[in-house]
UniProtKB/TrEMBL annotation:
GO cellular component: cytosol
Residues of the signal peptide: none
One Pfam family linked to the record: TsaD
Protein name, UniProt field: tRNA (Adenosine(37)-N6)-threonylcarbamoyltransferase complex dimerization subunit type 1 TsaB
Keywords of this entry: Transferase
SUPFAM superfamilies, sorted: Actin-like ATPase domain
Gene expressing this chain: tsaB
One BP term from GO: tRNA threonylcarbamoyladenosine modification
Sequence ranges assigned to domain Gcp-like in this UniProt record: 28-226
Lineage, broadest ranks: Bacteria, Bacillati, Bacillota, Bacilli, Lactobacillales
Single GO term (MF): transferase activity
Length: 246
């Protein structure tokens, strides 16, 4: 099976071509850039490099969030467009799970992949590395304050490995609660690898392309601001106001 996988959940962009679990080509760029400009050229360049025709692709695997609202929307839109146009399968994978899966840990390790969600909030997951080399979810991915996350993690009486390039921003708070149980290793990959994303997606159920949506885990900032200004407005009042504006 020939798989195209890509992630633009953060400022990093990763694209990979994988065939039967073998990495054929991968490109990862970890700088702040416009993913709407860079993603398709990166995909086209990799396909040209390995001389794959788009029509040969069997499956598209995309990191579906959480993370950057704009980055996720771009990746999911491109994935759905390609899957629909090429008539190939589509699979969505949690961006946090993909980050956790991009490194290898000792058996039975608790792993917390983490993205900065601003204002002392984080997107975080909780996974356990099984002896067979697979990750299993211990808790659902969530968006919450770093304090709420650490309060839950404090209940685990065992070492916890954090992964993600945003972890150092919260390290002082993490150590204050978890002490020596908190672990962070720079040798671990701190951004998503599209290769490992593809390997996760090779084993997952296929999505229905028209119904597939991102997993933002929170409203966009513009939506939050709108609700703050109009939170007391009933649906019928909103409809009347829009009609009046027309």
């Amino acid at each position: 099976m020939k798989i195209l996988a890509f992630d633009t959940s953060t400022k990093a962009m990763s694209v990979a071509l994988v065939e039967e679990e073998m990495l054929i080509a991968e490109k990862t760029i970890n700088i702040k850039r416009d993913h709407s400009v860079g993603l398709m050229p990166a995909i086209e360049a990799l396909l040209d490099e390995v001389r794959w025709r788009p029509s040969e692709l069997d499956r598209i695997v995309v990191a579906k969030g959480p993370g950057s609202y704009t980055g996720i929307r771009i990746a999911v839109t491109v994935a759905k467009t390609l899957a629909w146009t090429l008539n190939c399968e589509l699979v969505g994978i949690s961006s946090l799970e993909a980050l956790a899966a991009s490194s290898v840990y000792p058996p039975n390790t608790l792993v917390v992949p983490l993205f900065n969600a601003r204002r002392r909030n984080v997107y975080a997951g909780l996974y356990r590395q099984e002896a067979a080399g697979k990750l299993t979810a211990v808790a659902s991915d969530s968006h919450r304050s770093i304090e709420e996350l650490l309060a839950d993690l404090a209940q685990f009486d065992e070492p916890i490995t954090f992964v993600g390039e945003d972890v150092p921003e919260f390290w002082e708070a993490i150590q204050a609660v978890l002490g020596e149980r908190a672990q962070f290793y720079e040798r671990h990959r701190q951004v998503v690898s599209a290769y490992y994303l593809a390997r996760l997606g090779a084993e997952r159920p296929v999505e229905e392309v028209p119904l597939f949506v991102p997993e933002y885990l929170k409203l966009a900032e513009a939506e939050e601001n709108w609700l703050q200004d109009h939170g007391d407005m009933r649906d019928d009042q909103y409809v009347k106001k829009i009609k009046h504006m027309d």
